[in-house]
Write a structure and sequence with these properties.
Growth Hormone, Chain: A; single chain; mainly alpha; 0% strand; 20 helices
């Protein structure tokens, strides 16, 4: 693939090369997905090793997702400016080094610090890989199928992570769950250098340090307030002050970014109802996923007394169903649009949440597996249309930024899921045991509510009114697309029906 002086791709690889590139980019999803699920399986062992409180376990997860959420948009704009392949390789390198330091951490504080380094590298992976896919797969239907494969890899990572984590924790110890990332990262670095072409945006955005600081402050203070709220008190001066700072930072971010010519967060994207709905759905879905993974691993190991391997095997119904449903849903989106997969998936996730609201320390395995399988099926139905809607129809010149906004929604959702659902379930408990089950019921009711919200969004964002808002947003960027090659502009126009759903 060659590039002109502006840095925009002139030619598109043939189908075989596109599939190879898709496979390489999917390694980033695999490594990040495996890391998320594998660390959750290791939480009880980390708890015993460092004698950490529940809030310490929450920070082990949320330090990672919080930093990723804070830096995804910066990484996306960096990739558009400096080269997507280059930033992708940087991310793999930093992520692998962070994994090494996590495995060597002598205490909880340094483990959390190493997780921050991991996250800095991780922020350069999935959104940049998605922007590479967005530029390589120009045909909207082929892109939808590619996104389905991407979603299937997420299911594979969820299947592989808990089982692999269980084997490693049982046989070697929890530190090995971090070391396993290193060979995958090295392989991905080499394959990227050999096969992935370089690409840049024709008009990359300028740095926006003020916007970046506001994003970090808003997300960090919100997460800290939620995680530490049960111990500090929800009405304490500390908690109220943190919520106030977060609210002011979010408001300031919107006002500041609307005034910038080249903002870090392109607020105009959210004037498109389909794009805004996809981002909100991503937050809701991954809030449910993040809370599920965190609470379920503690329930299986510390309440039911399962080993890490047994707990990992219990999650296979969820991951296996997701792995099957995601690619099928990708094809369905390409053929029929996004409305019905979004609405059906939301209802299925809601049914899973309803089952889990009745869970006890002695709930039968059949009931648990049914809930897990429904949860996986719902996620497999929702995730591909969210991804497709978020990246299709956006300006090709800002593919990295658009993909980063959608990925930020996922990470914010995961962060909030662990923080909110975990804090509500903690409910003042001094230890995790049989008494941990009943307080989780309110968290599962929140999952039901999130699924209902996603169902409504799936309908509203595919109405004629919503499609009209997407058209108006596209018109705002038309001047930017005039400078692009005709074949690239045509690909964007062709993507509009798929984005609309």
């Amino acid at each position: 693939m060659s590039a002109d002086a502006a840095g925009v791709n002139q030619t598109v690889p043939d189908r075989r090369k596109r599939l190879v590139i898709l496979g390489i980019c999917s390694l980033s999803l695999l490594i990040v997905g495996v890391d998320a699920t594998i660390v959750n399986i290791a939480l009880p062992a980390i708890h015993r090793s460092f004698h950490s409180p529940l809030s310490g376990l929450q920070w082990t997860i949320d330090a990672y997702t919080l930093v990723i959420a804070s830096f995804l948009m910066l990484s996306g704009s960096m990739a558009d400016r400096l080269g997507r392949r280059r930033v992708f390789q940087w991310g793999l390198t930093v992520f692998s080094l962070g994994s090494l330091l996590c495995g060597l951490a002598p205490n909880l504080g340094l483990l959390i610090a190493a997780r921050v380094m991991q996250a800095i590298g991780g922020s350069m992976l999935n959104p940049v890989a998605m922007s590479i896919i967005r530029n390589v797969f120009e045909d909207p239907r082929e892109r939808a199928r590619a996104v389905g494969v991407w979603g299937a890899l997420f299911g594979i990572s969820m299947a592989l992570g808990p089982v692999l984590g269980g084997v490693l924790v049982d046989s070697i110890g929890w530190r090995s769950v971090f070391f396993v990332n290193i060979p995958i990262g090295i392989a991905a670095i080499i394959l990227t250098a050999l096969f992935v072409p370089e690409s840049r945006a024709s008009r990359p955005r300028r740095p926006d340090p003020a916007g970046q600081v506001l994003v970090i402050v808003a997300l960090a203070t919100l997460t800290y307030a939620i995680i530490e709220g049960p111990e500090a008190g929800w009405l304490s001066a500390q908690t109220i002050a943190l919520f106030a700072v977060s609210l002011c930072a979010f408001a300031g971010l919107v006002v500041f970014e609307l005034r910038r010519r080249e903002p870090l967060l392109e607020v105009r994207f959210f004037r498109s109802a389909p794009f805004a709905g996809a981002t909100a759905s991503a937050v809701a879905l991954f809030m449910a996923i993040g809370g599920f993974l965190f609470l379920n691993t503690l329930y299986l190991q510390d309440v039911r007394g399962l080993s890490p391997l047994e707990a990992g095997l219990y999650t296979l119904p969820m991951a296996g169903v997701m792995m099957v449903v995601s690619p099928l849903c990708g094809r369905a989106v390409a053929a029929f649009g996004t409305r019905w997969p979004l609405m059906a998936g939301s209802l299925v996730v809601g049914a899973s949440g309803l089952i889990l609201t009745q869970v006890t320390p002695h709930t039968s395995v059949a009931v648990l597996f049914t809930a897990y399988a429904l949860f996986g099926a719902g996620n497999g139905l929702i995730n591909p249309p969210i991804t497709n809607t978020a990246i299709s129809g956006m300006p090709p010149s800002q593919a990295g930024v658009a993909a980063a906004v959608a990925s930020t929604g996922r990470q914010v959702g995961s962060t909030l899921g662990v923080a909110v659902l975990g804090s509500l379930a903690a409910g003042g408990l001094s230890a995790i045991g049989p008494g941990f089950t009943a307080p989780t019921h309110v968290s599962w009711w929140i999952v039901v509510g999130l699924s209902a919200m996603t169902c409504v969004l799936g309908y509203v964002t595919t109405t004629p009114w919503a499609l009209a808002t997407a058209g108006r947003v596209a018109d705002q960027f038309r001047d930017e697309d005039v400078a692009l090659p005709l074949d690239t502009a045509a690909a964007q126009d062709d993507a509009a029906p798929v984005a609309a759903g």
